[in-house]
Amino acid sequence: MLPMDEIEPGLMVTHKATGFRYSVVDHEDDEVLLSPEQSGLQDLTVALALFQAEFVSSERFRGTGGRRGGKGKGKRRAAPAAQAPTGPKCRGKIKKMVRDRGFGFIRGEDGKEVFFHRSGLNAAEYDGLNEGDAVEYVVQEGPRGARAENVKAAGSEGAPA
Q: Going by C-beta distance under 8 Å and a sequence separation of 6 or more, which residues neighbour residue 53?
């Protein structure tokens, strides 16, 4: 678990499950704003407790003692309209939302269920989703299997209601 005194702007962190790397942009008492190192991902806001449990300092992997290692790019932020993740575009309905833990499951039109996490979409979109809502998403394979990214309400792009 990352101690509070280590969480500061510029800290490079890695998500334990996905291996994606982020830099801390800002933090408050109960949440942390992260900017992804990889292109095609959006900035994300993570609850502090989840951040401390799910992320590790990237510098620990490098074995460096400095605050930053590798490419010192400063406070780089991803563009708000970053490229969508690559993979098959699918449609389905929200089967279950687990709001207190920040994830849910979608049953695709093909009958397959896929996991999604609030980090795969912006906070306003996550908050607007409810069980039974029709959605569009991109399936990406991660270390723990298929995962829905870039989840959006299907009606938000002119789909029939």
A: 1
Per-residue tokens: 160: 């029939």
Asked if residue 96 and residue 40 are part of one domain, the reply reads no
Residue-wise DSSP of 31-73: EEEEEESSTT---EEEEHHHHHHHEEEHHHHHT--SS--S---
Place 63 in a pLDDT band, splitting at 50, 70 and 90.
very low
* Largest distance between two CA atoms of the chain: 55
Do 99 and 47 belong together in one domain? no
In total, the chain counts a number of residues equal to 161
Q: What is the DSSP letter of 113?
A: E
**Domain at 112, CATH number:** 2.40.50.140
pTM score of the predicted model: 0.46
Strands 113-117 and 145-153: parallel
Tens of pLDDT, residues 101-159: 888 999 999 898 998 888 777 767 888 889 999 999 888 877 677 888 888 888 755 44
